Amino acid sequence: MLFGNQFKKIQIETSGININLVHGGKGYPLLLLHGYPQTHAIWHKVAPLLANHFHVICPDLRGYGDSSKPTSSTEHYPYSKRAMAQDMFEIMEALGHKHFYVAGHDRGGRVVHRMARDYPDNVKKACVMDIIPTYHMFNNTDKNFATGYYHWFFLIQPDGLPERMIGLDPEYYLKEKLRRWAAPNATFSEEAVAEYIRCFSQPEAIHSSCEDYRAAASIDLEHDMEDENIKIECPLLVLWGKKGFVHKTYDVLDVWKRYAKEVEGKNLDCGHFLPEEAGNEVARELQSFFIDT
After folding, report:
1. How does pLDDT run across 147-196, given as a tens digit for each residue?
2. Taking the model in full, what pTM does it have?
3. How far is residue 174 CA from its own chain's centroid?
4. Fewer Cβ neighbours under 10 Å: the N or C end of the chain?
5. Sign of the alpha-carbon torsion through 259, 260, 263, 266
6. Residue 142 to residues 42, 59, 138, 146, 210, Cα–Cα distance (Å)
7. Which of 55, 113, 223, 272 is catalytic?
8. 76 among known catalytic residues
9. How far apart are CA 105 and CA 111, in angstroms?
């Protein structure tokens, strides 16, 4: 078992869909959100280390893992970060948590950003990993960004193009993503990778993940423009990989200070996949930041 016996696997029904998750530990609630093309399993190194201090909740976002993959729409709203944020708020309510901490990696970090805006009274502290805001990235696109993040522009193509191409060999595509974005010589748990392949090989999962990116390039930007002048109120921790891409193109902390009132952060000696490449360090940083004072 990736998470050990202290974690329990359950499903919680939100507004019309089911969210799959594991949870365990005792203490103040801490929600951990994964990125693309993974599942909650990305937290298998971090969550057990935090369980002595927090009630740790690790869900699969809608469209990923064993969570529901609802039918999308022409506006892509079902895969908007607002819809995903609502799912996460509802599962925390169902678990009896009105106030909580939240951390997210990659796509999960974008859901965290939306949660901090939509649920400011509930999110007490937040952490985002290896991202800067979607709105900022699309509005500051250049060759370097488009080359490094080519999938942002590939996955949003219409008419099932990326779905068909990825679907021809989803295992190769997923493993290639892990290789390209990780630091040289990074290793991943065979059990975790097998879980990613099992989930991502489903045609509906490939389609849902494309819809996630299509939403990011459309309705998510509309939502971001609506509140672009409203800064995140809660304290924000920003972590990124020293051997990753984001910091090579952007001054990560400087950008986030335009979007949040209270920001701190640092790089870790790894590539993009912080929770798996630097699990001990991530757990230490999260514990230090989120621990009650």
Report:
1. 989 999 999 999 999 999 999 999 999 999 999 999 998 999 999 999 99
2. 0.97
3. 16
4. C
5. negative
6. 30, 34, 9, 6, 22
7. 272
8. no
9. 9
Strands in 263-268's sheet, in edge-to-edge order, are 7-13, 18-24, 54-59, 28-33, 100-105, 123-129, 236-241, 263-268
| 111 closest CA partner among 90, 93, 94 | 90
CA 110 to chain centre: 6
Percent of the chain exceeding pLDDT 90 equals 90
* Residue 206 contacts residue 64 (beta carbons within 8 Å): no
For the chain, how many residues are written?
A: 293
Inter-residue contact 44 to 116 (CB < 8 Å): no
Residues 6+ apart with CB under 8 A from 83: 62, 77
The yes-or-no answer on residue 272 being catalytic is yes
Q: Among 106, 130, 212, 220, which one carries the catalytic annotation?
A: 106
Distances (CA, A) of 218 to 123, 156, 195, 231: 25, 10, 30, 21
